[in-house]
Amino acid sequence: MARRDRWRIAPGWLVEVVRPAPATPDWPRMIRTSVSTTAPILVALLAGDLAAGVVPSMGALNAAMSDQSGPYRVRLL
């Protein structure tokens, strides 16, 4: 079977489901996450106690990963 004919094996609905869609990155959230996770480590490094910045940085990472954008009313549900 020719390589160009392989797409004909999959059903049309499957081809549509797995086709990648372009996505726009959420730049404000990405910047907020990068700053909130690196700032505690940077401050602790400048203070001379790197271990003191690891826990706040991990907490900020957990908060950033669980953050849901939208109105507060929607977040409560």
Poorly predicted runs are: none
User: What can be said about the biggest beta sheet?
Assistant: none
Q: Beta-sheet strand percentage?
A: under 5%
Q: How far apart lie the N and C ends?
A: 52 Å
Oligomer: single chain
Count of extended strands:
0
Description:
The chain is mostly helical and 77 residues long. The protein contains four helices and no strands. The longest helix has 21 residues, at 27-47. It starts with 11 loop residues before the first helix and ends with a helix. The model has no long low-confidence stretch (mean pLDDT 84).
Quick tags:
77 residues; mainly alpha; elongated
Task: Please summarize what this structure is.
By secondary structure, this protein is mostly helical. The protein has helices at residues 12-18, 27-47, 51-66, 72-76. Helices cover 64% and strands 0% of the residues.
Question: Could you give the topology of this structure?
Answer:
Elements: H1 12-18, H2 27-47, H3 51-66, H4 72-76
